């Protein structure tokens, strides 16, 4: 992977977007197994309906991982200095996540040239499900 260079990055530049397959029950079961998060709200439809939800829905941290993948697809993981995320909506079964990012600030910190990137994960209807920011060091 060739990371972008600080002098080549401009405020307003977009990261290459990351579009994932629609969330399905297999995705949720695999994530539950991999993460150890077996909360029944994400895998048991009867439990979800008792909680007044129409169906199971994605783990918030699954979408957070997708945002991490977006940033790590732009720069090597070793260059990521921070990743902050806020959950803003539920990702339902059938939602197709798309992660996007935009450079919003350039600065120097701790002897490194860094950029702040606004990131978000939305569904196919343009509804934001997670928003946040990442700070990365660039050469």
Automatic annotation (TrEMBL):
Q: Name one GO cellular component term.
A: fatty acid synthase complex
Which Gene3D superfamilies does this chain map to? Hotdog Thioesterase
According to the entry, every stretch annotated as the MaoC-like domain falls at 23-117
The molecular function GO annotations come to: fatty acid synthase activity
Listed InterPro entries = Fatty_acid_synthase, HotDog_dom_sf, MaoC-like_dom
Q: Which domain of life is it from?
A: Bacteria
Cross-referenced CDD domains, in alphabetical order?
A: SAV4209_like
Family annotation (SUPFAM superfamilies) = Thioesterase/thiol ester dehydrase-isomerase
**What Pfam families does its record include?**
MaoC_dehydratas (PF01575)
The residues that cross the membrane are none
Q: State the organism named in the record.
A: Caballeronia novacaledonica
Tell me one GO biological process term. fatty acid biosynthetic process
The protein, known as:
Dehydratase
């Amino acid at each position: 992977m060739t990371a972008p260079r600080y002098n080549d990055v401009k405020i307003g530049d977009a990261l290459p977007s990351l579009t994932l397959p629609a969330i399905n029950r297999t995705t949720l079961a695999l994530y539950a197994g991999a993460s150890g998060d077996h909360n029944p709200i994400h895998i048991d439809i009867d439990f979800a309906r008792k909680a007044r939800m129409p169906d199971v829905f994605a783990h918030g941290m699954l979408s957070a991982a997708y945002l991490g993948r977006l940033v790590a697809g732009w720069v090597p993981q070793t260059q990521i200095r921070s990743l902050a995320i806020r959950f803003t909506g539920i990702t339902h079964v059938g939602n197709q996540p798309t992660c996007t990012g935009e450079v919003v600030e350039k600065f120097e910190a701790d002897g490194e040239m860094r950029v702040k990137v606004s990131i978000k994960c939305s569904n196919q209807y343009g509804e934001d499900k997670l928003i946040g920011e990442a700070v990365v060091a660039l050469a």
